[in-house]
Amino acid sequence: MNAIRRWARLALGMPSFVRTGQIGDGREAACAAYVEANAPRGDIDAALSAIDTFAYRKAMLVNIGDEKGALLDAAVRRADPALVLELGTYCGYSALRIARAAPSARVLSVEFSAANADVARRIWAHAGVGDRVTCVVGTLGDGGRTLDTLAREHGVTTGSVDLLFIDHDKKAYLSDLRSVEQRGWLHRGSIVVADNVRVPGAPDYRRHMREQQGTRWNTVEHKTHVEYQSLLPDLVLESEYLGS
Questions:
Q1: 167 in active site
Q2: Of 7, 31, 108, 190, whose Cβ has the fewest other Cβ atoms within 10 Å?
Q3: One of 63, 86, 196, 238 is an active-site residue; which one?
């Protein structure tokens, strides 16, 4: 019953989430406070565990979660990245997982909600990774401003992105991937991981990867579940860039 209530509260908050990036009941800031109160400072594992515990016991969170997070971890290790670009920060959970799996990588995370960026920065600072994980407030669909900021202020250059993680507006998955490609930021062997391809769903992105299979992309579809439960099926797509 508690799980049902948590999902019901999440569903009620989705209109707010679409508008603002937050559910609207303060759970994101409460998550940061929970991490600060329950995880020792500088302990990434403890910070991730605290976020998972909060999502299971207190209030649902729309990050990648523990089950799908293991798929992300494995992809990060395969990519062995120096630079990671993430689209969709939320509370900073996936960036923490990336930072743990690739301790020498620099992570740039793009988030349209300034309030979420503040929450994520609190959690990263507490976990001890604030010096190598950066949140850039913006969106790749803003006419090039955020893309220019990434290039000009954060050193994203031709072929520099080793791993791209996409977990934001599902309707923007394909257009934002194309924007990154058009900038030439990927190189042969770059890995792109996309969450929630089945639920809520990114059908145009999935179709594109299928159409480009073996030419521009080599994609594996990982069957898994929607975060923090075991009933709703989901897909995580892991795609290796084969070049133009």
A1: yes
A2: 7
A3: 196
Reduce the secondary structure of 136-184 to three states and give it as a string: EECCCCCCCHHHHHHHHHHCCCCCCEEEEEECCCHHHHHHHHHHHHHCC
Provide mean pLDDT across the span 2-28.
86
Interval 66-112: pLDDT, tens: 999 999 999 999 999 999 999 999 999 999 999 999 999 999 999 99
Span 63-241 CATH architecture: 3-Layer(aba) Sandwich (3.40)
Residue 178 has pLDDT above 70, yes or no: yes
- In the residue annotation, 45 being an active-site residue is answered as no
Catalytic residue among 170, 176, 234, 238: 170
